[in-house]
């Protein structure tokens, strides 16, 4: 049970659910294991939050604007508790024009970049700009409209910045996405990972349930602008069917009317028990992504873009200046085919 809860990222939810049960209903060793894990998560969360504000303060001192996404702000917005949700890194939205300066600042505060300055200068765009603190588990990822390639249409980053809100974390305030934009983002993120962990569905359910003042028209507009309507519908369908979330009836009716979203949710439910340990094969993944995008022309175009848009896995850091992006794009489909054929054999 504990292993499965960890695999799905819901150990905190399990601990909260068992907390009020009679002691004799939960074995003492299970209860103690949950207490120990929660304590460790609390300490790690405090450390991440302290590191978050150290980075944000350094960015602010140099005029770099950043929005915190997922992680601690989502935990507060969805659960009211930064330790309730499992997360192992910090995610920030930063404009592409600020990436080089942000990387230099991250280096000065002790983080090692996975994407070197030379790759940035060469115009290489990774899946994320990842930074890790040597000899620790601290990881920070910088994202923007260029790296968030699983959005069917380019994320309207400036609009997201204009709608930002402030979220209180440990008596400090952090700039974050509006609740409406965050809901769309976590649905796109869940779709990216085929909703294979219950945590991502729980986040949607908790955010919808806790944030009673959601502007659903703005949610719809945000999803439409990103081409992510079906991703949103699938996330809401999973949240309502599995975890009894109850968005407004008008929203539920719209979600129920999306028959493709219903079939995608059924497919997710078939994958969900494996918690990502048995990923779908290449053909199944491709078909799922096209259905998630929808449209006779837009769906194949979306899949094609994902298939040929190179990331850091497709170019070698040692030679990033000498390799042409076109060659990286050509190599990518073959690398993906080899990768998922290996999963199929396993």
> What are the low-pLDDT stretches, counting only 5+ consecutive residues below 50?
317-322
Beginning-to-end CA distance, first to last residue:
24 Å
Radius of gyration: 20 Å
Please state the structural category: alpha+beta
Can you tell me the overall shape?
globular
Instruction: Profile the largest sheet.
Output: 5 strands, mixed
Number of helices: 16
- Helical content (DSSP H or I, runs of 4+): 55-70%
Mean pLDDT: 88
The strands making up the biggest β-sheet line up spatially as 1-2-5-4-3
Query: How large a portion of the residues is in β-strands, by DSSP E?
Result: 5-15%
**Strand segment count:** 7
Order of helices and strands: HHHEHEHEHEEHEEHHHHHHHHH
Question: What does this molecule look like?
Answer:
Mean pLDDT is 88; it is low at 317-322. The protein has 346 residues and is α+β, with helices and mostly antiparallel strands. A five-stranded mixed sheet has the order 1-2-5-4-3, with helices on one face. Helix content is 57%, strand content 9%. The two termini are 24 Å apart. α4 (71-79) packs across α9 (198-210) and α8 packs antiparallel against α9 (198-210). The chain is globular and about 60 Å long. The protein has 16 helices and seven strands.
């Amino acid at each position: 049970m504990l292993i499965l809860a960890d695999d799905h990222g819901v150990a905190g939810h399990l601990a909260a659910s068992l907390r009020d049960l009679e002691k004799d209903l939960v074995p003492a060793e299970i209860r103690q294991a949950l207490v120990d894990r929660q304590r460790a998560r609390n300490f790690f969360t405090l450390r991440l939050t302290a590191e978050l504000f150290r980075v944000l303060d350094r960015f602010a001192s140099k005029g770099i604007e950043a929005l915190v996404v997922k992680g601690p702000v989502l935990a507060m917005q969805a659960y009211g508790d930064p330790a309730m949700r499992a997360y192992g890194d910090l995610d920030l939205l930063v404009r592409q024009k600020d990436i080089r300066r942000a990387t230099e600042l991250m280096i000065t505060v002790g983080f090692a970049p996975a994407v070197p300055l030379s790759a940035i200068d060469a115009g290489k765009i990774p899946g994320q700009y990842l930074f890790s603190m040597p000899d620790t588990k601290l990881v920070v990822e910088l994202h923007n409209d260029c790296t968030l390639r699983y959005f069917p249409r380019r994320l309207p980053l400036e609009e997201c910045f204009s709608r930002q809100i402030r979220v209180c974390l440990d008596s400090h305030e952090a700039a974050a996405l509006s609740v409406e934009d965050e809901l769309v983002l976590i649905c796109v993120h869940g779709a990216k990972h085929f909703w294979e962990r219950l945590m991502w569905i729980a986040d949607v359910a908790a955010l919808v349930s806790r944030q009673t003042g959601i502007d659903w028209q703005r949610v719809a507009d945000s999803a439409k602008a990103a081409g992510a309507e079906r991703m949103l519908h699938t996330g809401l369908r999973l949240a309502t069917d599995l975890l009894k979330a109850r968005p407004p009836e008008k929203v539920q009716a719209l979600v129920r009317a999306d028959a493709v979203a219903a079939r995608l949710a059924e497919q997710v439910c078939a994958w969900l028990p494996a918690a990502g340990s048995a990923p779908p094969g290449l053909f199944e993944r491709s078909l799922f992504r096209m259905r998630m995008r929808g449209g006779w022309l837009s769906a194949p175009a979306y899949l094609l873009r994902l298939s040929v848009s190179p990331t850091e896995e497709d170019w070698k850091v040692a030679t990033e200046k000498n390799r042409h992006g076109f060659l990286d794009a050509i190599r990518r489909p073959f690398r993906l085919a080899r990768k998922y054929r290996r999963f199929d054999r396993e």
